[in-house]
Amino acid sequence: xxxxxxxxxxxxxxxxxxxxxxxxxxxxxxxxxxxxxxxxxxxxxxxxxxxxxxxxxxxxxxxxxxxxxxxxxxxxxxxxxxxxxxxxxxxxxxxxxxxxxxxxxxxxxxxxxxxxxxxxxxxxxxxxxxxxxxxxxxxxxxxxxxxxxxxxxxxxxxxxxxxxxxxxxxx
Length: 171
Ligand code: FES
Ligand code: FES
Hints:
- By secondary structure, this protein is α+β, with helices and mostly antiparallel strands.
- It folds into 2 domains: 3-82, Roll (Ubiquitin-like (UB roll)), CATH 3.10.20; 92-169, Orthogonal Bundle (DNA polymerase, domain 1).
- 35% of the residues lie in helices and 14% in strands.
- The protein has a 5-stranded mixed sheet, with helices on one face.
């Protein structure tokens, strides 16, 4: 069996032997017990299973885990929903999700949270004009499906974190 090593939420894991056909979703949930990452459609259509992948150049992007083998994450640094809060302190985005009551069943929430966090970090490095904010948030969250139809609340939760600190995210 192949063995993989990777960093998850800043902690090194591995080498761990995995079946070649084991999905990253099953690796996180069944092998490591990180069940915050959800399994929805299983077909790369809903992004409830998305995690953050941190590239070596300092950029980050979300990636689904349901249709990608764990072996494809060998050597990567990723973040899951479990990695957002630090010492029990929620991030501004997590607090905004709660104050907006952005989620209902919560099944899609880890994916939206990871996507929103990637957007915040991107805007911190490359702020945008206020006039582009609504479109930018819409485009960032596009592709994440919520069966409870919480799209507006998620949008508002992400947008309001940005508006609360305009000098950090907006030009
Ligand atoms: S469960 Fe992975 S995209 Fe839906
Ligand atoms: S809150 Fe239920 S699927 Fe989004």
